[in-house]
Design goal:
There is one protein chain. The chain is of the alpha+beta class. Helices cover about 35% and strands about 20% of the residues. The chain contains 23 helices and 22 strands. Strands 1, 2, 3, 4, 5, 14 and 15 form a seven-stranded mixed sheet that branches. It has a seven-stranded mixed sheet with strand order 16-17-20-19-18-21-22, sandwiched between helices. A hairpin with a 4-residue loop joins strand 19 and strand 20. The protein starts with 8 loop residues before the first strand and ends with a helix.
Length: about 725
């Protein structure tokens, strides 16, 4: 190569070769050359494929020749950038022992005694590190004396870490049955918030007691016995790690020279003697080769294959990118149950077995799921530069606004200030088909779900019943961070503004405009009810006409609760469910009276209230008071107390089961999703539902073999009631 460097052997590697452990010489002064064919259009350097960590750069030369082994197309020597570096070796625990390594390689199963000893030591170390972290304002009234039926084991106490909130010591106590428990000194029967640990029968209590009381003689007895059998904190450590691994502490506990338990620090083993000279041509197009020359012999065992070579990462990323928007919620588990990803993995590996290949077949480092998650997260950040939360949705909204009308779904991502100067976030999703379904509906049901998107977000759905397909369809899907009445008012206003803009049709209520919505169904959420009532009040703010249901009232004078009385109903399933929860506490007469509040015949509810107040428990009275206090509830469950005509009341759905079914269906696609992932899953779900409705209308193809009819729905309802009552 030059006057100071001669190689014993030159090994050529074809294009695409991944060499993680380049062969080294057989003598300390020997050198081996490795010549790699590379693709000049890709930036994968063979150096990055090596599992040995390189560091301690020893300079280099900007313009150098690699002897006569790197030539261009005219067979002329090419100028290269030369890098001189060395192997950094391995990180080992400060208590590392090569003798223990040899013993550990016997792969013998641990004895029962070793298992119990290790479990006891680990438990003690965990308690010592965590301690009782209860935040107590005043612990000074503790007398320090154990309860009358307890016996302490001398001074068996453990000082918890100084950074813990509670300063109490952990003490080992025995009850009158000689059963031990470990607890914070401030724990008492009338103050049980502090830490207490029972069921200690799986530990060596003698050793645990010695550790807690710091009985040095007894600790020495147990640990020297363990040492003679080749385990325990006095033995040398076998732990090794690659310098590329981001950790600085050994996962195992050891005794230091002063007898203290601690996790060993990781440090570099004796410096490896292998030096590397790496030659990279300036013009890789004229000479698409790289030479790596290794000199010397490694002084350590080969590092584990914890690093994923860049070409493997590129292959893995290409499979992930096939997921498209599903990458927003990708996890190691989810990708391995995704048929598309697994199919691509099988194809790449040429896998023929009926069993799907694990990711470790692509590279052993991918057997570490945390490492896989980091790779997914890195690619996700590139694919979604604005993230998968609200900022990412804002960016998605901008993208959708530039799409053709039929392809738009995410219509707004906004923030508003509501009461208390609180910031409230709002995302509204409406396709063109959903907007027309919402505007043309006569009956609306609303509900909120809390499972599908993680964090502070709640999912709100407005649904209507499609009489052709006999199914509930979503007219608007929204995500909010507030359940207040003001937030719901803003929500309804923005939804209807968007729907009107899409369809060119105004929102209409039967009791205000003579056409449009005649009934809304909801649960007993006060914020939802008052929010829609305030929206109706806004619609009537300039209407000086008389109310058709109460001719003596002027429309603009109606309050939010007055409007609710004209079209708002509560879900009877939610109503009855809360009564069922009280059946074990109340008499049959009280329960029947509670059920009777929901009626189409009861004009006067005073007798019902008297029965509940006179014969019910405090729970029943509180239940009734809650219904009476919320001004909209009684008219929403009792037709005679509302202004909704009887035939309209009877023709409308009596529950929000359509919403519940919709939540259940879409939750099958995934729960606890990112905001972006939840929206995209919702878009796909809504598109499928509206496509099935269009297919039924145009070609008569139903989603199921059995045609959905009123009889079929009644039959299922009765069957569910039978099953429910049989429980």
């Amino acid at each position: 190569i030059h006057h100071k460097l001669t190689i014993e052997q030159l090994i050529d590697y074809p294009l695409g070769a991944i060499i993680e452990y380049p062969v080294t010489a057989s003598t300390p002064d020997g050198a081996i050359g490795h010549r790699f064919a590379i693709d000049p259009h890709k930036k994968h350097h063979p150096k990055a494929n090596m599992q040995n960590s390189l560091g301690d750069k020893h300079g280099g030369v900007t313009n150098a020749y690699c002897g006569s082994i790197l030539k261009d197309e005219q067979h002329k020597d090419v100028l290269c950038k030369q890098l001189k570096t060395s192997c950094t070796g391995l990180k080992v625990c400060q208590y590392y022992s090569a003798d223990v390594i040899a013993l550990a390689n016997n792969n013998q199963s641990p004895s029962p005694e070793e298992i119990v000893f290790s479990r006891t030591l680990s438990f003690y170390c965990a308690v010592h590190e965590i301690g009782c972290s209860f935040n107590s304002a005043d612990l000074s009234d503790y007398s320090g004396e154990p309860d009358s039926d307890d016996e302490t084991s001398g001074n068996s106490e453990l000082e918890t870490g100084s950074n813990k909130i509670c300063s109490g010591r952990m003490i080992l106590l025995y009850n009158k049955f000689n059963e031990p428990r470990l607890q914070c000194q401030f724990w008492k029967y009338d103050d049980r918030a502090h830490l207490i640990l029972r069921n200690l029968q799986d530990f060596d209590i003698n050793y645990l007691s010695a550790l807690i009381s710091n009985d040095k003689l007894l600790i020495k007895h147990h640990e020297e016995k363990a040492l003679r059998n080749g385990y325990g904190p006095l033995t040398g450590c076998t732990y090794q790690a690659s310098p590329s691994q981001q950790q600085d502490k050994c996962p195992f506990w050891h005794r230091d020279s002063q007898g203290r338990l601690q996790r060993g620090s990781l440090c570099l083993q004796s410096k490896c003697k292998v030096k590397y000279s790496i030659y990279t041509p300036h013009d890789l197009h004229s000479c698409p080769q790289v030479v790596i020359i290794s000199k010397g012999i490694h002084s350590h065992s080969p590092p584990l294959r914890v690093k994923t070579p860049p070409p493997i990462i590129e292959i893995f990323n290409s499979m992930l990118l096939e997921l498209g928007w599903k990458l927003s919620d990708a996890t190691p588990r989810k990708i391995m149950i995704d048929s598309g990803f697994v199919s691509a993995l099988r194809q790449h590996l040429g896998w023929k077995s009926a069993l799907d290949p694990p990711l470790s077949q692509l590279h052993p480092s991918l057997g570490n799921l945390d490492h896989v998650q980091r790779l997914i997260g890195k690619l996700r950040h590139q694919y979604f530069p604005n993230g998968t939360g609200f900022d990412g949705v804002v960016y998605l909204t901008e993208i959708h606004s530039s799409l053709p009308e039929d392809e738009q779904y995410v219509r707004c991502a906004e923030s508003h200030y509501i009461e208390g100067n609180k910031l409230f976030y709002l995302v509204i999703c409406i396709s063109r088909a959903m907007a027309f379904a919402l505007i043309h509906a006569s009956c609306i049901s609303i509900d909120t779900s809390f499972k599908r998107v993680h964090g502070k977000w709640q999912e709100f759905e407005m649904e209507t019943w499609d009489t052709n397909g006999m199914k509930s369809i979503v007219g608007a899907r929204a995500f909010t961070t507030s359940q207040s009445a003001r937030a719901h008012f803003i929500l309804f206003k923005r939804i209807f503004d968007i729907a009107t803009k899409i369809t060119g049709l105004p929102v209409r209520f039967q009791h205000i405009h003579g056409t449009g919505y005649y009934v809304w169904i909801a649960d007993a959420h006060k914020g939802q009810a008052l929010g829609v009532g305030l929206y109706c009040k806004m619609l009537c703010q300039d209407l000086k006409t008389n109310c058709p249901m109460e001719p003596t009232r002027i429309m603009k004078d109606l309050t939010a609760y007055d409007h609710l009385r004209r079209f708002y109903r509560l879900c009877t399933v939610h109503f009855k469910r809360h009564i069922n929860d009280l059946r074990s506490y109340e008499t049959t007469e009280v329960i029947n009276a509670m059920y009777s509040l929901s009626s189409t015949t009861m004009h006067d509810i005073t007798p019902i209230c008297d029965i509940i107040n006179s014969g019910g428990t405090e729970k029943a009275k509180a239940w009734l008071n809650d219904k009476l206090k919320a001004k909209f509830v009684i008219p929403a469950i009792n037709q005679k107390q509302s202004l909704i005509p009887l035939h309209v009341w009877q023709s409308s759905p009596s529950s929000t089961n359509g919403n519940e079914q919709s939540h259940r269906d879409i939750n099958r696609d995934g729960i606890n999703l990112t905001m972006l992932g939840g929206i995209m899953h919702g878009m796909q779900y809504d598109f499928r539902i509206h496509s099935s409705i269009a297919l039924l209308l145009t070609q008569g193809i139903n989603m199921r073999d059995r045609f959905s009819t009123e009889f079929y729905h009644s039959q299922r309802s009765v069957t569910r009631q039978l099953h429910s009552q049989s429980r």
